Amino acid sequence: MKPSEPSKASLREMPEIDFTRARVVSRGRHAARARRSFETLIIDKKTLKALGGADAALAILEAVANSIAASRKKGRAA
Q: Within 10 Å of residue 57's Cβ, how many Cβ atoms?
């Protein structure tokens, strides 16, 4: 049967932690980029089948994204 609490010997071996000097650590400079890398798009099965599968749907979305990026670079004629 295992004891429910740590033994006195193991408690003596543990270092004490001074929480008065502790500070909150920020998420880091790469946190926003990591969040963006986890973005997902959910497409129902019927739509995915109509588009021709996962690879075809990805190709279509990339083409649309490239088209939008190209139109933004050109700008609007005044």
A: 17
4-32 residue pLDDT tens: 787 888 878 877 777 777 776 666 777 77
Sequence-ordered list of residues with C-beta below 8 angstroms from that of 48, at least 6 positions apart, any chain: 54, 57
Report how far apart the first and last C-alpha atoms of the chain are (Å, whole number). 82
Domain hosting residue 78, numbered range: 43-78
Which stretches within the chain are classed as H helix? 8-13, 31-37, 45-51, 54-74
Would you state the pLDDT for residue 39?
76
Q: How many domains does the chain have?
A: 1
pTM (predicted TM-score): 0.45
In a domain, 57, yes or no: yes
